[in-house]
Amino acid sequence: MTHYRPQSFEVKGGPQWGRDHLPLLRAKLAEAGLDGFLIPHEDEYNNEYLPDRAERLAWATGFTGSAGAAVVFTDKAAVFVDGRYTVQSREQVDQSLFSLEDLTGAGVAGWLAKNAPSGARIGYDPKLHSPDALDRLKAGARKAGAELVPVSVNPIDAAWEGQPDAPMAPIVPHPIEFAGEDHASKRTRIGQAIAEDGADAAAITAPMSIAWLFNIRGGDVMRSPLPLAAAIIRKDGTATLFVNPDKVTDEVRSHLGNEIALRPESEFEAGLKELAGSKVSVDPSSASAWVFDTLDSAKATVVRRRDPVALPKAMKNETELKGSAAAHVRDGAALVRFLHWLDTEAQSGEVDEITAAQKLASFRGQLAELRDLSFDTISGFGANGALPHYRVSEASNLMLKPGSLYLVDSGGQYPDGTTDVTRTVPIGQPSDEMRQRFTLVLKGHIGLALARFPRGTTGGQLDILARLPLYMAGLDYGHGTGHGVGSFLGVHEGPQRIAKAGSDEPLQPGMICSNEPGFYKEGEYGIRIENLIYVTDPAPIPGGEIDMMGFENLTWAPIHKGLVDVSLLTAQELAWLNDYHAGVREHVLPLVEGTPAGDWLAKACEPIAG
């Protein structure tokens, strides 16, 4: 049974979108007296995954990646992407209309400094830019003698015929049995943090923070159970939730209680202006420039601080950790059924990437608790697997032919937890090189999994543990090693991060992270091994002097032993792998016992001799 919108594999975007829509946008700019317009990927809520209505960058350019930007002038235009999307942007953007530029480094601001016409009035939607990013853009425009001009009506919205309506999914309470703490307690804690920051109130616009703070969930964004809304919380813990009243049921009103006022989201501006004379905490990395401008115009004192919900949300309580563990066992059974299918029927050479993604979704869909996928499944064979952020479509779909590797990165949303797991499987016989590089990735995965570290350690300090075996062979991978994960929330969550340029946020007990080193041979194959782990409480080490934190595993799914070169593993690494497979068998076998998948699992988890 399916409980969610199935993944679409149709080809979206493409050069024709830019050809069709760029003239319409330029006509609206002329009407508004503008010489140019800035188009970020972000929406008003700084979401990673956008509702269809907010796909403005795709509409204007044809580029559908999850990060990027564009600048449109009357006579030229540019699309900005990072290294993940170099290939995709070439395919989707008409380069006779748009130049392709680098989003990193000098980025849009640097390009404006060199390319904006002197005297140009360049429009921007203040609800779609953070104040810090906007400051950089303004500085770039000034260098060219141009100016940025805020608009009250986005010209893309004015030009976009048939623009989808704003999403209107009903809000539902997130029960205490999954949250582990009622929202009154959360609001008290957050109110105290606001007071400690020297503020009277905080303006919150991040949907994940709002969902966590009020113990509510929604369905306005695919793959993340988010309600699109805004909130003001005061230092005494009382709050106002600004949300479309059509999303709010009597059950939700009762759940929220008397200390949370409900107002239409259209009144958020008025609510901000009512804070005149107050000190208001606002996060410049998540709230838009419009929020800052509105508070400034109301003569409120803006206190730039991190969203006070971000860190408490990331530090899962005991209930959330137990829920996540239960969700991962359930999810593991679906994964085992899929991996059994991959190791048997899918070895025929007659299965393609789309069929494989649909098959995995069908196994998860048999779970009554499934609410959605946690992101569109990355289902990549051979050369497509070498693209870390690959999204299969009807145009790119490959058959799983013997002689290469298949990489599948997927997850599910359950009321008690969010999952995210990657496995790499051989189709036919893998080469010695594939086995060697898979084993190096596995060694890095184990190195991070076994880490012990004192309080104050950041993810950036641990990242090298996952890369060192690859480094020693002259190899590396171009993405981070670990991201935070929410509790029936976003599959990507801060502030923690494990990466070369990691967050300076220390890892704290209860934080859930991914552990996902990889290797990608362009044009041939990709390898990634990803489990979710959480940070444990500090504990003594026999003979040691400092209590150390570590990681506890959440994900249970076999690692393909046919890709392991045992001669490259140390005794400790081999023991870890055998212990891990014993854990997979212990947790998941009871759910698939007596089935062909159960028989397969028992063999897949047999220990490897040294």
TrEMBL record:
<dbReference type="Pfam" id="PF00557">
    <property type="entry name" value="Peptidase_M24"/>
</dbReference>
<keyword id="KW-0645">Protease</keyword>
<dbReference type="InterPro" id="IPR032416">
    <property type="entry name" value="Peptidase_M24_C"/>
</dbReference>
<keyword id="KW-0479">Metal-binding</keyword>
<dbReference type="InterPro" id="IPR036005">
    <property type="entry name" value="Creatinase/aminopeptidase-like"/>
</dbReference>
<dbReference type="InterPro" id="IPR000587">
    <property type="entry name" value="Creatinase_N"/>
</dbReference>
<comment type="similarity">
    <text>Belongs to the peptidase M24B family.</text>
</comment>
<keyword id="KW-0031">Aminopeptidase</keyword>
<dbReference type="Pfam" id="PF01321">
    <property type="entry name" value="Creatinase_N"/>
</dbReference>
<dbReference type="Pfam" id="PF16188">
    <property type="entry name" value="Peptidase_M24_C"/>
</dbReference>
<feature type="domain" description="Creatinase N-terminal">
    <location>
        <begin position="25"/>
        <end position="152"/>
    </location>
</feature>
<dbReference type="InterPro" id="IPR029149">
    <property type="entry name" value="Creatin/AminoP/Spt16_N"/>
</dbReference>
<dbReference type="GO" id="GO:0004177">
    <property type="term" value="F:aminopeptidase activity"/>
</dbReference>
<feature type="domain" description="Peptidase M24">
    <location>
        <begin position="326"/>
        <end position="537"/>
    </location>
</feature>
<protein>
    <submittedName>
        <fullName>Aminopeptidase P family protein</fullName>
        <ecNumber>3.4.11.-</ecNumber>
    </submittedName>
</protein>
<dbReference type="Pfam" id="PF16189">
    <property type="entry name" value="Creatinase_N_2"/>
</dbReference>
<dbReference type="InterPro" id="IPR033740">
    <property type="entry name" value="Pept_M24B"/>
</dbReference>
<dbReference type="InterPro" id="IPR050422">
    <property type="entry name" value="X-Pro_aminopeptidase_P"/>
</dbReference>
<dbReference type="InterPro" id="IPR000994">
    <property type="entry name" value="Pept_M24"/>
</dbReference>
<keyword id="KW-0378">Hydrolase</keyword>
<feature type="domain" description="Peptidase M24 C-terminal">
    <location>
        <begin position="548"/>
        <end position="608"/>
    </location>
</feature>
